[in-house]
Amino acid sequence: MIELKLYNSRTRNREIFTPIDPDHVRMYVCGPTVYDRAHVGNARPVIVFDILHRVLRFLAPVNGWGKVTYARNITDIDDKINARASETGRSIHDITEETTAWYLEDMGALGELGPDFTPRATEFIPEMILFINELIERGHAYEAERHVLFDVTSYPQYGLLSRRSLDAMIAGARVEVAPYKRDPMDFVLWKPSTDDLPGWSSPWGRGRPGWHIECSAMTRALFGESFDIHGGGADLMFPHHENEIAQSCCLSGRNSFARIWIHNEMLRVEGQKMAKSLRNFFTIRDLLDRGIPGEVIRFVFLGTHHSKPMDWTETRVREAESTLKKWRTICDDAEDAGEVSPTVVQALANDLNTPAALAALHDVAGRRNGSELKASAGLLGLLGDDMGDWNRPEPLARQYASMIDGLVQERKSARLRKDFAAADRLRDRLHAAGVELMDSAEGTVWQCGPNFDPERLRSPK
Ligand code: AMP
Ligand code: ZN
Description:
- It contains 16 helices and 15 strands.
- It is α/β, with parallel strands linked by helices.
- The site of zinc ion has 4 residues, from helix 7.
- Zinc ion binds near residues 30, 215, 240 and 244.
């Protein structure tokens, strides 16, 4: 028996994990809204919960648990998707299909095992309608002007997860005020669709679901009233997860739903969350296209515990790359896969302490024990034979990486000596060559845009 300790955001305690049903460990994670490429921040929950998935699978036979099921949804109904369709003149179906395929491909490149179920919102409309109907019957939701709203005052525990009082939530959240709401905090379960928007027929007319209901309906359909672990980014704790709990607990009439909640902290740029809406993002595809192997991206994420915010830095990418190259050489000499290092297992079983697990891997590598290194790194999804995107032909951006690094460094020095004119000239030169810069407290991250032209990196005559 190996104890798995997990920090539960619901109870604010580190707890020993015991499955509700020892024969079936169940984990659900909120997945992407599919209208654009996944940015680097979006990959953080993917890697964090992939590690947990791997650890659960590893521990299941040791601890006498049965099968492990991991589900992560795809939100393919959303106003951002509708907006993207009307901006581009493309069909919603084309956009969601293409983006879902991109997502699976990009996350696959990071070496995730992948969930057992990837339910899409559009596949669960009947379940959502039934769910909403039952909430109305039980007095937790009401219909108003072709909308259905959840009555937040009918659930006194609302706010317990994020520890906010109703008043604080009203003050803190940008709550949509609408004349048909009884209370400003009430949230939409169903809303009407005009003819140009996707819609399904329902007891409340043609319309579409609000966002929160899909996760409640899907977990109920896949796992029943309660299950073991619910995950997602910390940005989802309020209101999304709070709303999931309210819906599901009011439906079952029991205080059950997810037993353990795990939230990953945010990837930041200049101290702010990386987000599409803030336009401070770059995508996983950008990094892969720069020739950075998916395994290196994974390694960078594992260097910070999931409960801490992190920045993306070029230095970390370089360090990860050189470590993995070294480790791969050590493994090349290994006979066959050995035993997983108990220190690595202990680190992961201690609230998924991935930085400690990497430190333990460094020790194994120091002893040049290739077979133990390969087996142990495998538990973290590293050094796999299928992650060999190391030998791809070098993309243009990579060939010029050290030249770009040099210019970025020169610009930094110019700024430090307060020669802002020189610093601006260097920035303009990089921009003219199609290199985009993002500054943060920990340094500058760069990426080559689609118009990258290395000729223009050279000093103007
Ligand atoms: P979205 O497609 O925006 O709904 O996000 C998909 C997942 O990515 C959710 O679990 C979010 O919490 C997570 N996420 C979004 N931005 C970040 C970020 N900057 N850092 C870490 N996780 C994020
Ligand atoms: Zn969700």
